[in-house]
Fold:
Amino acid sequence: MSGVVAVIDYGMGNLHSVASALEHVGADKVVVTHDAEQIRQADRVVFPGVGAIRDCMSEIRRLKCDELLQQALTEQHVPVLAICVGLQAMMTRSDENGGTDCLDIIDGEVRYFGNPLTDAAGERLKVPHMGWNEVRQTRSHPLWQGIEDDSRFYFVHSYYVHA
Structure:
């Protein structure tokens, strides 16, 4: 993976695990940063996250990174991979923690799956969803380059994006 990958550092989450994983798969240079200029100059951006969205947004605002991230992530035209709470933070709002206003980079809401959920056969689905699933793309996307349909991915989630 050529170029610089910026991992957004907002003071919490799995930042260094993500950086190590990127280096392991061949990223040339990984920087863990909340510096706007480094984020703007990156060839790729990863917005990781672990925990609750309210805490994430509180920390982003405390560090005065909210406007910086809004500008950096909307002005540049590079791939952004948002993981878990990182994706929630990019949305307009999240239902988690009784409702949290987010960065509004992507117009949409993060919603709780709710109970009970059932599949197409009427079988009850467990929330939170945890486990390995086969995934296939419904339309071509560069993110999927080199990943075969029916590859297995691990999921842990109780929320989904409605955009």
